[in-house]
Sequence to fold (413 residues):
Amino acid sequence: MIKDFESKLEEYAHLLVDIGMNVQPGQTPRITASVDCAGLARKCVRICYERGAKDVIMDWTDGFVTRQRYLHADSSVFSEFPGYLAEKFSFMAQEKCPVLSIAGDDPALLSGVDPLRIRAQQKAASLPRKAFNELLMSNRIQWAVGAHPVLPWAHAVFPGLDPESALDMLWDAVFTACRITGDGKAVERWEAHLSSLSEKASVLNSLDLKELRYTNSLGTDLVIGLPEGHVWVGGSDDTDGGITFLPNIPTEEIFTAPHRLKVDGIVYSAMPLSLEGNIIDNFSIRFERGKIVEVHAEKGEYLLKEAVALDDGASYLGEVALVPFDSPIRKSGIMFLNTLFDENASCHLAFGSSYPENLKGSGDMSKDELIEHGLNDSITHVDFMVGTQDLSIEGIRRDGTSVAIFRDGSFAF
Ligand code: ZN
Ligand code: ZN
Fold:
């Protein structure tokens, strides 16, 4: 049993509601959580009301029920999206409901399910959810994602331990990664951490960088061009109405968009990549004029080759993120098998789609204009870790001068 579990859980709930969603008086937040995460979700509901929420929409899910439905329901239901649910999404879009999703499912929840059923369901849901998702993607409503340890996840992370010890270990790791100690001060610690991230981001934005040059002893030798007008983002976001919120808890990264056509050289992986439950390890990726032209992996090579060929955009980069080597998540040495945590362990890149928030003026641009400015578009977005203890990143400014960005795996400024 974890020491001070209840008070740590309370601190976690405050972090999700007060820093994550930052619920304002009169708002109607929506929370989704599995029934296995009820303890944390109920605390979040209570805190929302304490913050003056007009109402809270609590949507419970149940992994068991979800799986039974995918396995046994009539196949016609997956290509339909019921009208009453569509109405719910248009209500949430109209009310600009802040959303919190507490993720806590078995990583193998959908194993053995016909992928056609999953794809049909995603497709059927995409149109009715479009208005709401667009508000979400363009940060016009507050949204946050946090994770809740459950037994199957804990077992996947610590396969050698008995189930109860594995779950305790995972809770401990999640609390540590989220700077939760039980002293009730996680919110203050996060305010300080977030302001240091945003200071770093504004330094990077003031440099007007043209490209980044990565080198390390693994053999990484990579030039990443940055689009004109790129924006470094770190920590929290603001809605157009000026409400600050934190989408990912925890977060350690400062990231921007690479220019999709200006990446050249080779990069070596610093950590294994977990892709839909499979591990790809010790891999390298070579780029020519932005495009991935060669992929090698000691383990899982064919999976990586498939992943970068999913569509046209999958073979170009969409994100470049800086995370110091001494981040608490990397220091824990734990592979969480969950991107929310693992992408905060090290400097990473992602192949696939870019985030429009990483380009100045993107709000008024069409998809084609975003691509013209160097952003990438794809149905996929896969983060992979490249940051080692000896990683150097040299920045080249638009005026041709150079500036040290990373030395020995951490920020040089
Ligand atoms: Zn990232
Ligand atoms: Zn990413």
Observations:
- The first helix runs from residue 5 to 21.
- Residues 253, 255, 319, 321, 343, 348, 383 surround zinc ion (ligand 1) (CB under 6 Å).
